[in-house]
UniProtKB/TrEMBL annotation:
Its cofactor is Mg(2+). This is Hydrolase. Keywords: Hydrolase, Magnesium, Metal-binding. It comes from Leptospira ellisii. It comes from the Bacteria. NCBIfam families: HAD-SF-IA-v1 (TIGR01549).
Length: 248
């Protein structure tokens, strides 16, 4: 058996960590040669939108290195590798620090989560299925998860396609030696839930990482598959611990 797991906003609050890192960098804009926090933020937002539009069907649309290259060229009119790499290095350092802060804030919740994961890993293969570049995800995993838990990872960068593509889920099944997949757990209805259900994998939708009042319910969703369009059922919960307990 194998259990597929999303990472971002499933085990770690990536969106808020990314945003916090960029806000911190913008407040220190002059350190990087920019006139103000406003200038830095505007250039970054414009670069991000441009990359997302140009590379909308490619995993590379998530590379911060490309964003930083664009804002530096826009600002200084030339390529400055040292400045670009400094921005990327500081960014990675900041988001790793953000993970550490949240890990301490939710210490008891993470302790239970890791215990559940370890128990599941003794019976099932754990595979993190993620729409990101591999380096970024390895940096997160290094900070977040204890070494005692056995798991694999498949990034969209390695596949060349993001979830919910058929190629991604095919590669994921190959990576676990085509063992039966018990479920896909993730925060995205489109990428994780619809993607998994479309290819015959049960799905669990996570509406929040942790909750003081965990709830679990069955819901229905309409999907299109090779056999046609129809409704099917998935599980929804607001706590990763509740999701993991389903597979002990």
């Amino acid at each position: 058996m194998a259990l597929f797991l999303d990472l971002d906003n499933t085990f770690v609050d990536s969106v808020s960590i990314y945003e916090s890192a960029i806000r911190f960098m913008s407040r220190n804009a002059k350190k990087y040669g920019f006139a103000s926090a406003v200038e830095f933020s505007e250039l970054y937002d414009a670069a991000r939108k441009e990359v997302k539009a140009d590379l909308h069907d490619s995993p590379s649309n998530r590379l911060r290195l490309i964003y930083f290259k664009k804002i530096c060229v826009s600002k200084f009119g030339k390529l400055e590798p040292d400045r670009i790499l400094k921005l990327e290095s500081d960014y990675f350092s900041l988001f790793q620090s953000g993970i550490k802060v949240r890990k301490l804030k939710y210490a008891s919740e993470y302790k239970e989560t890791f215990s559940l994961l370890k128990s599941i890993s003794e019976k099932q293969k754990l595979l993190f299925c993620t729409n990101e570049n591999l380096r970024t995800q390895l940096l997160k995993l290094k900070v977040l998860f204890p070494k005692s838990i056995r798991y694999l990872i498949l990034s969209s960068e390695e596949v060349g396609k993001e979830k919910p593509s058929e190629l991604f889920f095919t590669k994921a099944k190959e990576l676990v030696l085509r063992e039966s997949v018990s479920a896909m757990i993730g925060d995205s209805l489109k990428d994780d839930v619809e993607g998994a259900l479309k290819y015959g994998i049960p799905a669990v939708h996570l509406s929040s990482i942790f909750s003081r009042s965990p709830q679990t319910a069955k819901k229905r969703i309409r999907i299109s598959a090779s056999s046609g369009t129809g409704e099917t059922t998935y599980t929804e919960t607001n706590d990763i611990r509740s999701a993991l307990k389903l597979f002990l």
